[in-house]
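Write out the bound-state structure for flavin mononucleotide.
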Amino acid sequence: MKIVAYNGSPKGKNSVTHLMLEEVLKGAREKGAETVNYTLSEKNIKHCKGCFHCWFVEKNKCILNDDMEEAMSHFEDLDILILGTPLYFDNVSGMLKVFLDRCIAYGSYFIEKDEHGESKHIDAYKEKHNGKPAPKIVIISNGGFGEKSQFQALEFMMNRMARNMSSEVIAKIFRGQGPLLGMKDEKLRPIIDDYRKLLQQAGREIVMDKCISIETQEKLDIPLIPVDIYNQQINNR
Ligand SMILES: Cc1cc2nc3c(=O)[nH]c(=O)nc-3n(C[C@H](O)[C@H](O)[C@H](O)COP(=O)(O)O)c2cc1C
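---
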């Protein structure tokens, strides 16, 4: 099984997103997956110009000369696509969004209706990869606030995007109080270590079962520390 994670944090390898991706991929490798952790902040990926050269002039070819082709080379024979992002204004980071917009070059112009009768583009991945379905999607995000509800808009957007990619979101890991994971405070050490182990468990389950078990998901969703105490600590800084 091949898994590629795209890290959309502008902080790159110093980000909480990176830490989370590394643990999930570690668990996935333990179950035999081949993994890539791709740091978008280290690459030059320009904004989509919206010219549709990639659809109407040269199929799948973008006019922009940057690292996008290299980034997309990991899509070959891909089983699971992990999108990692900090929560920015309730949504993906601009960096991840720029990358996602550029993926249009690899999509299809043609329209079909989904099982609910709603229009979408046809599955270009399947067409291009001898019938292999589009990779399943895993979302990994962290934000500054404590509650899981903070990720509602991101979750909705990702489900819509997956639908249009003829895929589905098979697992979501939303970490409120994310900045705690990057702290060196000794008192937090056991909490962070336990959470890292949970992320590895999630990675193993994603490879074995293509989902995260209810038990692991429930543990992943528990705030690292009580929300009111967290808020108080932030306010007293
Ligand atoms: C521009 C910007 C917007 C943000 N918006 C939110 C937000 O809407 N909700 C939230 O919980 N945290 C928000 N945050 C906090 C980040 O999600 C948080 O610092 C996170 O830990 C950064 O993750 P990273 O280290 O992976 O980049 C925002 C931070 C920035 C810089």
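---
The chain has a mean pLDDT of 97.
The domain at 2-235 is CATH 3.40.50.360 (Rossmann fold).
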